[in-house]
Amino acid sequence: MTNGARIADEQITASSELDDKSLAKYGRLDNTFEANVRYGCWCPSWEDEQPWLQVNFSRMVTISKIKTQGRPDADEWVKSYELHYSSDNAATFEAHKDVLGDVQTYIGNKNRDTHATNGVTPVIYTQFIRIRPKTWNDHVGLRVEFRGCNGVNYCLNNPCLNSGACVMYTNGFGCSCPSDYTGNACQTYITPPPTLPPTTSSGTTLPPTTSSGTTLPPTTSSGTTLPPTTPSGTTLPPTTPSGTTLSPPSALQTTQSNIGGTTQTNLDTGPTNPLTTTSSGITGSTSVPTGSVSTTMGYASIAGFALNPIPAQEFGQSFSVGWVMTAGTNVTVAIAYNGIPCCNAIALSNTGGQCDCLISVPGLFDPDGVVNISAVASNLVSSVPAYIQIEVLKTITQVSFTMLTTYSDFGTGVEGRGSQKNIFPAEYPVIRSA
């Protein structure tokens, strides 16, 4: 909003305007006072008891930060405010709420010109937004800037698996998983600990019994019932409940359908057929050993994952991170700068892509002149990291000088007076450095 290049004057409206010198279009951050033309900010009428300033971005955007200032030529500023946004083309507006579901009240300014910056969490995905002053000093005087990125709604198609809930953050999303799942997309089932058989005080394992106390026949670890034996270890032939001895059992083949299927048992009269289990997954069927279950159906391993080079970037600005990938399905790509989560993309398959890194913490962005970008592409069967560095360019702004005497009759290292600290007594010779 600062220079009008992206947000036109007609996209900024208000509940009221004090006069033609305090129009809504003047409510841009760092706007300046011009005598007989403008106050340099937006001011509502004195009768407006619920004032608001509205911005129409003309497209869906994600808002993650807001900056405000007061009136540049008078002691008028907003001390606290709320954000309201519309999801139905400005027909109705709802208040932005925090993660606990309470209406969020933001702390505003304490003077005319200092930027008061607030992060917006959770981020707001909208086309229309209103800033509603709640308290102010003398009268509402407001200059404002919104920061964010174009049209990113990470939770639109709910990337979380297994009934996980998607939660949007400033630079991506997180998944709140059910108690029996974990992982960045709730993709990993948490296997419960095995149930141990009961033992006596001496450590001897007791045979299993039914609820009525009947002792069950012994089984193998895979659940196969063992034939009864005599005390000397001789295997007894199986019998019917009436005691009739049965002939040797034929082999058993079990087919198990993983997705919404049924289990059916077929008897085969051939004497040499082995005991096998066939697991039918989403993309086909795979023979696996008895007792094991495939957990990687529909996933192909990642290959050829690499980050594209990124030119030098201006300090504190957002940038895009792109990548290539030659193989892999159902892939999540997570990006971080200097260890800070930055952005991510999900459900990728054998493709390149990019996401926008929004620099929400500039103070952690550039401690040593470069930014370390790390990326991890992962799915249920593989995980591939990649790393690059970006050179950071800084623009020198808000320059100030401290002027000290290097020689004078009243000492060295003495600071000057006045707002610029550069006024020294005229009757004394002074050599000074800045």
TrEMBL record:
<dbReference type="InterPro" id="IPR000742">
    <property type="entry name" value="EGF"/>
</dbReference>
<keyword id="KW-0245">EGF-like domain</keyword>
<feature type="disulfide bond">
    <location>
        <begin position="177"/>
        <end position="186"/>
    </location>
</feature>
<feature type="compositionally biased region" description="Low complexity">
    <location>
        <begin position="276"/>
        <end position="289"/>
    </location>
</feature>
<feature type="region of interest" description="Disordered">
    <location>
        <begin position="194"/>
        <end position="289"/>
    </location>
</feature>
<keyword id="KW-1015">Disulfide bond</keyword>
<feature type="compositionally biased region" description="Low complexity">
    <location>
        <begin position="198"/>
        <end position="250"/>
    </location>
</feature>
<dbReference type="InterPro" id="IPR008979">
    <property type="entry name" value="Galactose-bd-like_sf"/>
</dbReference>
<feature type="compositionally biased region" description="Polar residues">
    <location>
        <begin position="251"/>
        <end position="275"/>
    </location>
</feature>
<dbReference type="Pfam" id="PF00754">
    <property type="entry name" value="F5_F8_type_C"/>
</dbReference>
<dbReference type="InterPro" id="IPR000421">
    <property type="entry name" value="FA58C"/>
</dbReference>
<protein>
    <submittedName>
        <fullName>Sushi, von Willebrand factor type A, EGF and pentraxin domain-containing 1-like</fullName>
    </submittedName>
</protein>
